[in-house]
Amino acid sequence: MVMAFKKIGIDFHGVVSKAPDLFKQLAVKAIEQGSEVYIISGGPRAYIETYLNRLEFPYHKLWCIIDEPEVNEKTQFFADGSFRVNDELWDGAKAKYCRAENIDLQIDDSVVYGKYFVTPYCRFDAKMQNFYCANAVISAKQDIGTILSELETVAPTLFPK
């Protein structure tokens, strides 16, 4: 079976980090079916790379908001390692990247980020173990093939091109 998704974006914090086995299986299956998997997160890159490598988590590209020059230049860094970025710049960065990279579906945990997207966007709720895609609810407790099939069915209806 060839997937309709050429590129799937998956957030790290709150998604992969909360359900690593589920998303590793999803990434493996998606790649087997011909998709590219992008890890799209805030950062920091080194921590995420180490975590993914330790899990032997397959992906094609890792993109972090904090690495973007327009974000990094406007970021206020503090001595304790924390940082502060304008909310609108931060909240819209993933949507801008997904649009530029022609991502077919972004899976994230943020309610806020979704309003910036024109790319189909599904929110993953780790506690409820569900994907919320507009009015559709997809249980993450199903087998991976069924989850991908349901995501593939719902995604084009989210933002028809």
Per-chain topology:
Elements: E1 7-10, H1 12-16, H2 20-32, E2 36-41, H3 45-55, E3 61-64, H4 69-72, E4 76-77, E5 83-84, H5 87-101, E6 105-108, E7 121-125, E8 130-133, E9 136-139, H6 144-158
Parallel strand pairs: 1-2, 1-6, 2-3, 6-7
Antiparallel strand pairs: 4-5, 7-8, 8-9
Helix pairs in contact: 2-6
Strand order of the largest sheet: 3-2-1-6-7-8-9
Number of strands: 9
Unreliable sequence segments: none
> Strand share of the residues?
15-25%
Shape: globular
Helix content, binned percent:
25-40%
DSSP helical segment count: 6
Mean pLDDT over the residues? 91
Largest sheet: 7 strands, mixed
Order of helices and strands: EHHEHEHEEHEEEEH
Radius of gyration, rounded? 15 Å
End-to-end Cα distance: 23 Å
- Return the structural class: alpha/beta
In a few lines, what is going on in this structure?
The protein has six helices and nine strands, in the order E-H-H-E-H-E-H-E-E-H-E-E-E-E-H. With 161 residues, it is of the alpha/beta class. Helix 2 (20-32) crosses helix 6.
Task: Describe this entry's structure for a reader.
- The chain contains six helices and nine strands, in the order βααβαβαββαββββα.
- 39% of the residues lie in helices and 22% in strands.
- The mean pLDDT is 91.
- The longest helix has 15 residues.
- The strands form two sheets. The chain has a seven-stranded mixed β-sheet with strand order 3-2-1-6-7-8-9.
- α2 packs across α6.
- With 161 residues, the protein is α/β, with parallel strands linked by helices.
